[in-house]
């Protein structure tokens, strides 16, 4: 759980965590970086069979970011400050604890970089499924097939942290090109209703726009609402509508 980075990162495997330390080593990186550059206590490099990087592994939503300390401060001063505001480091424990009772809320996607994950390049899960971050990571059938497998996902800023990734396609209908925001409101079978922005800017009639969202809504969506917000100052009085809205879930199964 966010293993130590300072004095361990990029050192020989004999002195740091690595895949040979157990039959299966899975890691949750939540405050990774370099202690003296971005004041991060966790290790950034991949060092397990499955390396999970929630939210990219460096900055956790809901945590106040630490400022880079003055260069003349001692290591004891730095660690004293860190202990008082180690929110990101402790997130690994919070995610693991929640995963025990909510395993399918932490589906990870195997990507080379976090940017690839954000852009949807690793979505949806392949036929063999996706790894689960946390307590149920050992259920992944290919968990020890390779070492240093990078896995990415997003979480929420507060409990419950679990999120479910969905791909949203919206084909628009309008009398002419219009400017504004395309929003979608989703309602789950559990009654949760949340609004998400799919795109903003200029839209052409008949074109399809897509985005990837990480929603609090598990399982199936029972209701979809198309919401249009015209940009201020746009003189056209025409209406924007949705010819079709498609939702693709990327979870296992």
In CATH, the architecture of the largest domain is 3-Layer(aba) Sandwich
Strand order of the largest sheet: 1-2-4-3
CATH topology name of the largest domain? Rossmann fold
| Number of helical regions | 4
Low-pLDDT sequence parts: none
| Percent helix range | 10-25%
| Average pLDDT, all residues | 88
Structural class: alpha+beta
Question: Could you name the CATH class of the largest domain?
Answer: Alpha Beta
Q: Can you tell me the number of structural domains?
A: 2
Order of helices and strands: EHEHHEHEEEEEEE
Please tally the β strands and state the result. 10
What is the straight-line distance between the termini?
A: 27 Å
Global outline = elongated
What portion of residues belong to β-strands?
25-35%
Largest sheet: 4 strands, mixed
Spatial extent as radius of gyration: 21 Å
CATH superfamily of the largest domain: Alpha/Beta hydrolase fold, catalytic domain
Pfam families: Lipase, PLAT
Domain Lipase: 1-161
Domain PLAT: 176-252
Family: Belongs to the AB hydrolase superfamily. Lipase family.
Description:
The protein has about 250 residues and is α+β, with helices and mostly antiparallel strands. The model has no long low-confidence stretch (mean pLDDT about 90). Strands 1-2-4-3 form a four-stranded mixed beta sheet, with no helix packed on it.
Descriptive key words:
253 residues, alpha+beta, Rossmann fold, Lipoxygenase-1, 2 domains, four-stranded mixed β-sheet, 13% helix, elongated, LIPR3 protein, secreted, Lipase, AB_hydrolase_fold
